[in-house]
Prior knowledge:
Elements: E1 3-6, E2 22-23, H1 30-42, H2 48-64, H3 110-120, H4 130-138, H5 144-153, H6 164-180, E3 203-208, E4 218-222, E5 228-230, E6 245-250, E7 257-262, E8 267-273, H7 282-288, H8 290-298, E9 302-303
Parallel strand pairs: 3-8, 8-9
Antiparallel strand pairs: 1-6, 2-5, 3-4, 4-5, 6-7, 7-8
Helix pairs in contact: 1-2, 1-7, 2-3, 2-6, 3-6, 5-6
This protein binds zinc ion (2 copies).
Amino acid sequence: MTIKTTDLGDLPRGSIGQPDPVILPDPSVLFVRRAERLRVLAVAHPMGDWLRFVALIADAQHRACGPVRPPCGNQDKVVPEAGSSPAPGHDDGKRVDEPPLAAAMTRLDAPFDHALAHIVAVGDDPSIPDVAREILRGLHSLDTRALAGAWLAGTMPAQRAGEAVPICAALQVWFTLRAAALDVSRVHLLPRLGLCPVCGAAPVAGVITASGKAPGARYLHCGLCATAWNYVRASCIGCGESKGLALQEVEGGTGAIKAETCEACHGYAKMFYQAKDMAIEPFADDLGSLGLDLMVSDAGWSRLAPNPFVSA
Length: 312
Ligand SMILES: [Zn+2]
Ligand SMILES: [Zn+2]
């Protein structure tokens, strides 16, 4: 396989309507669609077994979104860690440099444990690899809230790399439910436009839409809370530079998946084109296209933000 490089060409600015700046996730469909998409991508895929395992995790995430939800109207009740002082201005609703679910301002509660219990139950599925079963069953004896805190802080111990997937999966449920309960009119883009305006995490990929009220607009998709936010197309999502951007794709591919490389920061991020494939689900399609990451990183580009299920 080889990669093909193109420049960004003419962007259809004139045809773009006014895109919504932020689209909050819908937990009633998010994980079920992800699971469905992962199973489609797993067919005849070199990593098919792993994608099917992640599909089972997504099924569990969907079940975890069912009965327990944060009470309505409580969306702003994000409690600072004991011993830390609240961020100044956090309650005035105007401060825009602190996203409402900033990891440092969250304290995990029972819905996190509930989500993790659903994910641990995937360990009973006879189809999963033994090593995954061992990891899921071993979570019972660990302080999982502490591990989740470490994961959020980027200080997960190296010997717990295997636990990162189930811990992150439970965090995704927790953050997605809280993100969905926010009032979108009170969510503002951050000064660092490349970070999630709801939780501050990095995007897993971008999607160039082909439907909705602003076809042709680009949305970045949060790898943690699944919020999508509008980001101008002609600008690197890592450093904001607009010169020296190029698109790389696998030669002979469908044109639906490209890596946007930036000469200014030598970073890249994956972009998905709905016009070429309406079934794209950014998290699933990112995991299904890690072959492109290998090729692009072999060519010397560094991925701006890894998929949270892949980073060790
Ligand atoms: Zn987020
Ligand atoms: Zn850049």
